């Protein structure tokens, strides 16, 4: 009997909550859905009705210029989300991190910039790196190469 490299056992994972609607967030939804994850995209760039973060959810802020970005990050970091990330240049991230830290927000578990360093530049490639990081984190892995 040949051994299969995958498992048919159902594994429960939290949702991937994405703020706001843009080409990267739509690509995250497509890739993560294909990987069996439930994705919720909040299209309103002001946070809309709120992301309603549940324990184990992953939160990805895809628009660092969204009017409600600081509030969305504050709420996600205060929640039981298993992963909190933001798409941003290192410069933009530094300013927002400084603002949050001045307020006393613990940003130690914030992944910024979001995703693994795959080198991709297009929305689909960036989304792939983010989904890969979410999956790696959900299994307690680093996301490095599998070869020994």
TrEMBL record:
Q: Which residues form the XdhC Rossmann domain?
A: 17-134
> Which Pfam families does the record match to this protein?
XdhC_C
Name listed for the protein in its UniProt record:
XdhC family protein
- Tell me the organism: Nocardioides pinisoli
Organism lineage:
Bacteria, Bacillati, Actinomycetota, Actinomycetes, Propionibacteriales
């Amino acid at each position: 009997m040949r051994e299969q490299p995958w498992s048919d056992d159902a594994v429960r994972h939290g949702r991937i909550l994405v703020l706001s609607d843009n080409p990267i967030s739509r690509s995250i939804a497509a890739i993560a859905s294909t990987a069996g994850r439930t994705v919720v995209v909040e299209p309103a760039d002001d946070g809309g009705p709120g992301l309603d973060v549940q324990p184990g959810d992953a939160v990805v802020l895809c628009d660092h210029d969204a009017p409600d970005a600081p509030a969305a990050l504050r709420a996600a970091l205060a929640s039981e989300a298993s992963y909190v990330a933001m798409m941003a240049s290192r410069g933009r991230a530094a300013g927002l991190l400084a603002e949050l830290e001045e307020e006393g927000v613990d940003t130690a578990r914030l992944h910024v910039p979001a995703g693994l360093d795959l080198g991709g530049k297009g929305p689909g490639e960036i989304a792939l790196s983010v989904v890969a990081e979410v999956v790696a984190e959900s299994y307690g892995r680093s996301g490095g190469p599998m070869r020994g």
